[in-house]
Amino acid sequence: MPNKVLVTLYGNDVAPRFDLATEVLIAAVDDAGAVHEEKTMVLPQASAEKLCHMVLTEEVRAVICGGIEQEYYDYLTWKRVVVIESVVGSYRRVLEEFARGRLKSGDILFDATVEEANGG
Amino acid sequence: MMGNSSQRGVGNRRFKGEGVRGQAPGAAPGLLRRTRRRPVLSVKPQVTVAERIGVSSWSCMMNFACNSHISGLFDRPVALAPLLDEIPVAIALLDPNRRIVFVNRALEALTGFAYPDPAGIPCAQVMRSDICLQRCPAARLDDPLDPLCLEGDILNRDRQKIPVRVTFAPIRDVHGCLIGFLETLEDVRLLRELDGKIGSAYGFGKLIGRSPEMERIFRILPVIAQSDSSVLITGETGTGKDFVAEAIHQSSQRAKGPFVKVNCGALPETLLESELFGHQKGAFTGAMENKPGRFRLAHNGSLYLTEIGDLPLSLQVKLLTFLDDKVVYPLGSTKGFHVNVRVIAATHRNLEQMVQAGDFREDLLFRLNVVRQHLPPLRERGDDPRLLLDHFLNKLSSQFKKPIKGFSPKSLRILQGYSYPGNVRELRNIVEYAVNFCQEDQIQPRHLPAYLTQAKHAPPPAERAATGVGAVSTLLLNGKEADLNWQDLERKMIMEALLKAKGRRSQAARILGWGRSTLWRKMKHYGLAS
Fold first, then answer.
1. If you measure CA to CA, which chain B residue comes closest to A112?
2. Can you tell me the ipTM of this complex?
3. How far away is chain B from the Cα of A26, in angstroms, using its nearest Cα?
4. Where does a domain end: B454, B484, B506?
5. Which of A2, A65, B328, B376 suits B15 as a labelling partner, its CA being 20 to 30 A distant?
6. Buried b vs exposed e over B129-162: b needs ≥16 C-beta within 10 Å?
7. How is domain A3-109 classified at the architecture level of CATH?
8. What pLDDT digit, counting tens, does each position of B265-307 carry?
């Protein structure tokens, strides 16, 4: 059964903050490591509570995000959702690493020599 | 110190083993040149280095920042990175695309990102500030002119949201061209906390009260905090001596230093000496290693000696010596250590009586007694018990997640009539007991500890005033009046009743529970009628 994963987005990168993300990508990763059934959802406003609700209603198994507050981290892990936090990088590359089972919290996958900065 | 930082920052931490490690041979060092008496950052040599060694400009700039030296300010060039590390404000240097070039140690501590991990990535990914994501000053300024100061919050790697004040300033080269940004982040958690405290009236630190006695204390405590003198806090058990000591430390200039608490009555004499002053390895059996002692641990902070009245006489001499010359001699050591510590002492004992009994050194009392603050017992704090009952009920009911709205009139009567020999601590414990046992929306007498409802209590102050019993019972409860004879006591009762009634004799008679003629007769008898 494919694993559903949610990535919070900020442009083409993982959003720096879970609570301020207004765009998410939900994808399914099968056992072979292939990513499919991608869909991007735009939220009417940033809300950590609504994102948590979405994670549960969409039956997401893993969340990939940047910073996340302790309260929401605890809630999601309590709901048996794997939270891979403090991830920096383009969502495409992050997803690839996740599909290969190599992504872990704190990973910085930013190829700054190639990519243009999104600014700060 | 600078030398050590320089070694750590530049030699070990700042560079990964890449081709650009260190500075390219022959490359001109980045300079903060002295122009019109103000150093200006010049990056022109760095671009040359980047072109020469063929790496991206940001990674080169990152190394440039670490390798940079400030010259022209001092006799010899000074490394930039260790200098920025010593600044206690979080600082980040960004390139024109707002990617991290350099972060100092304070920013590492605040965000949890350790250099060089954040180097080269967009600052929004490191700062994780709502300002970056929603109102980035650099994004809307094509030609940023002036530094900006904004308030927002960041989310660090410990999953904490921290309120910050962000200052964003452009960095220009000598020709005025934008070459990057300087971003500073100031942790304003303490300020927000203080704002909250200022907003909550009738309080200082964790103390609350609105009786005139407490208001006077709240006025004087900030003044005491700002001085650096030794403080002696006296008061009965449970009056809040520990809270006052901590509040004094937190409001003082030593707030960033340690607050070390030692209970002088908790340890036997030999252990206490070692605990306070430390010991050298081998000073006694079992002294396997050097121990710094609490005095040295409290260096640049405050040492709180609670139950100072229980300090053994031999240690009183040692404390006295310390208060004189500010040097501690660990057990078994001939070498003294100079420490900068403010001593705050507290006791529930009457030190003057102890001095008379020979249990406390008079000269130590004089040295500790520079600033003395007495905390009144709860029974002398007017209507504060009611305020405290409501305060603790709100606090504890939300802590225990109980939907309790208040006290029933009967339970309130019992609580207000109680004398609280254990003071605020006892009151808090009673409320905690009641909150735990209450399953309704009001605390009833049956939810109170049994010793409150089974014992007979004096009526609340309001009723006491109305019936006149209060004046008598208050006088009888007060220990000082125990030595007076009945004549003196009665005279004092009349005086107090007249004072309360503002001179109106009929009202004073009601307070005393006498007829007007009885009062008049007694006033004449005591010579108060004129």
1. B120
2. 0.89
3. 21
4. B454
5. A65
6. bbbbbeebbbeeeeebeeebeeebbbbbbebebb
7. 2-Layer Sandwich (3.30)
8. 877 877 888 888 888 887 777 777 777 888 888 888 899 999 9
